[in-house]
């Protein structure tokens, strides 16, 4: 029973919950400050880098999944071939 | 229009000319045609002193010819629908270019002009070769500042695009928008990644940290392309979330569905008059002043005219944009108040010419239907001045509707100050018209205190 739920519960996306919690706690703890006009646009650039990093992880994860699917397809073919 | 390209711009020009994504768009009119002028024709053009001197002074390496685009308009003159559309064209072009190893250097509504309802990408040299492994788009922040955030604050706080773009060339910074947001909105899907996170990340850096702008190339080119596409798709979703939904209402948005002074017969009589005028004097370039949702603009467009339709209400201009695009009618809506039109702005008040400078003498047909009383009463512009301007705007035909002070709408606008407008009889009106125009046809609207005039400018 436990093994079954574990298999079904396996997620195919990177787990964002810990990142989300970190972000929210940072926001709540953030004091009001004067806006950063010295270098406008830097915030957006950093945010883009953050998304890019996550997308990068997604790229490798997708490749991993596709490779695994290819392998299991191969295995299934061999098995049906044998029978 | 001729463009002189210097050595530095040559690779970008070549990219633009080679890009298949651009070629597709040139074919359906969504990007400006660019043809290199070479050989004898080039020699001829360079022999002309104005062109030749500029070419040599700038160190020109190529001469490129572009089509002139309809009527130049700027983002502060667009309804939200047009800013949204320009943004979609921009981000979709950027995404399509990725597979060809190309990209856009920047992302601003100033790279887009309108031909009727159709957006045209005009900044040919914004297209550039991208290095393999480069997964960052430097136009990202500008796209957010100039397309997404203005649309968001326009929708959520009613801030007019005109106000944003007249005073700020480069749109809104996330920090500025953050101040407007309450705690819930800050965490909302619409604003979290566009405003809250950039602001927070921007503050936490040391101001002197220049490492942020250093080049960082990925070793895996395929990964870089995937990341870039993901980022661009994210922006596509962002602008989709702030898409104008057409649910906005304003004082004028239901004028055509009955909130006006005309009975059905009266309105049909007006339509007939305008239709006959357009048949008598075939329209070329038409200006419809106070167009509302463009009923008469559409009539002019169907009669073969290229129409620029102006109204000071962005909601109706937006409605007109939707119907022009849906019906593929050659109508370019603009949010312009003729009594307070867009000024010259930018550096030395010379970067973006004033609306009137672009408009004078450019139209052969001008429509001023059910609008003159607003200028006379609400804005207190003298009759002679209004008709002087009409004379400057049109080169030939004017269709104008006289509204008597006894008219109910006129009275409503006058708010009890009827005595100010006592002298505005139709005789006085015609005398003032006579200074610039000949009356070709005159038709009072039966049962209304209004008269339609078809006029031709005196030579």
Would you summarize the structure shown here?
The complex is a heterodimer of chains A (83) and B (459). With 83 residues, chain A is mostly helical. Chain A is built from three helices and no strands.
Characterise this structure:
The complex is a heterodimer of chains A (83) and B (459). Chain A is built from three helices and no strands. The radius of gyration of chain A is 21 Å and the shape is elongated. Residues 1-7 of chain A have low confidence and may be disordered. Chain A has helices at residues 2-9, 17-28, 42-82. With 83 residues, chain A is mostly helical. The longest helix of chain A is centred in the last third of the chain and has 41 residues, at 42-82. Chain A starts with a helix and ends with a helix. By secondary structure, chain B is α/β, with parallel strands linked by helices. Helix content of chain B is 44%, strand content 17%. Chain B is built from 19 helices and 14 strands. Chain B has a seven-stranded mixed β-sheet with strand order 10-9-8-11-12-14-13, sandwiched between helices. In chain B, helix 5 (80-98) runs antiparallel to helix 6 (140-157), helix 5 (80-98) runs antiparallel to helix 11 (221-241) and helix 6 packs parallel to helix 11 (221-241). The A-B interface holds A 23-24, 26-27, 30, 33, 35-52, 55-56, 58-60 and B 135-137, 140-142, 144-145, 173-176, 178, 186-187, 193, 196-203, 205, 207, 212-213, 218, 223, 226-227, 230-231, 234.
């Amino acid at each position: 029973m436990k093994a079954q739920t574990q298999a079904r519960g396996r997620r195919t996306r990177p787990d964002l919950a810990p990142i989300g919690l970190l972000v929210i706690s940072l926001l709540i703890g953030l004091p009001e400050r004067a806006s950063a006009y010295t270098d406008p646009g830097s915030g957006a650039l950093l945010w883009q880098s953050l998304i890019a990093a996550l997308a990068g992880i997604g790229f490798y994860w997708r490749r991993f999944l596709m490779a695994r699917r290819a392998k299991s397809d191969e295995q299934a073919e061999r098995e049906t071939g044998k029978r | 229009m001729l463009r002189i390209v210097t050595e530095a711009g040559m690779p970008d020009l070549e990219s633009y000319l080679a890009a298949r994504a651009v070629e597709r768009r040139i074919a359906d009119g969504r990007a400006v045609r660019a043809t290199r002028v070479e050989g004898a024709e080039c020699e001829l053009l360079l022999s002309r002193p104005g062109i030749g001197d500029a070419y040599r002074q700038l160190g020109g390496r190529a001469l490129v010819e572009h089509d002139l685009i309809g009527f130049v308009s700027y983002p502060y003159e667009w309804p939200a629908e047009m800013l949204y559309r320009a943004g979609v064209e921009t981000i979709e072009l950027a995404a399509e270019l990725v597979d060809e190893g190309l990209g856009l250097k920047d992302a601003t509504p100033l790279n887009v002009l309108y031909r009727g309802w159709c957006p045209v990408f005009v900044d040919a040299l914004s297209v550039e070769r991208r290095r393999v492994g480069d997964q960052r788009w430097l136009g990202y922040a500008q796209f957010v500042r100039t397309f997404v955030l203005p649309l968001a604050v326009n929708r959520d706080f009613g801030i007019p695009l005109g106000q944003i773009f007249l005073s700020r060339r480069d749109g809104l910074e996330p920090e500025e928008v953050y101040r407007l947001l309450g705690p819930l909105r800050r965490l909302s899907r619409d604003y979290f990644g566009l405003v809250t996170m950039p602001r927070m990340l921007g503050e936490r850096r040391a101001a002197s940290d220049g490492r942020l702008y250093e080049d960082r190339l990925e070793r895996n080119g395929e990964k870089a392309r995937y990341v870039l596409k993901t980022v661009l798709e994210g922006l596509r979703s962002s602008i989709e979330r702030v898409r104008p939904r057409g649910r906005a209402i304003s004082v004028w948005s239901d004028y055509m569905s009955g909130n006006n002074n005309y009975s059905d017969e009266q309105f049909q009589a007006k339509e007939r008059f305008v239709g006959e005028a357009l048949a008598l004097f075939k329209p070329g370039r038409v200006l419809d002043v106070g167009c509302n949702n463009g009923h008469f603009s559409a009539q002019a467009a169907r009669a073969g005219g290229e129409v620029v339709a102006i109204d000071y209400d962005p909601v109706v201009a937006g409605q007109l944009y939707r119907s022009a695009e849906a019906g593929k009618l050659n109508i370019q809506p603009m949010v312009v108040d003729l009594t307070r039109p867009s000024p010259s702005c930018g550096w030395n008040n010379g970067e973006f010419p004033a609306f009137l400078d672009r408009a004078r003498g450019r139209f052969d047909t001008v429509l001023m239907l059910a609008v003159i009383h607003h200028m006379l009463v609400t804005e207190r512009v003298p009759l002679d001045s209004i008709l002087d301007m009409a004379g400057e705007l049109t080169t030939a035909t004017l269709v104008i509707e006289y509204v008597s002070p006894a008219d109910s709408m006129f009275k409503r606008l006058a708010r009890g100050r009827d005595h100010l407008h006592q002298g505005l009889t139709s005789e006085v009106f015609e005398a003032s018209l006579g200074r610039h125009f000949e009356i070709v046809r005159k038709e009072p609207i039966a049962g209304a205190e209004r008269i339609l005039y078809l006029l031709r400018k005196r030579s």
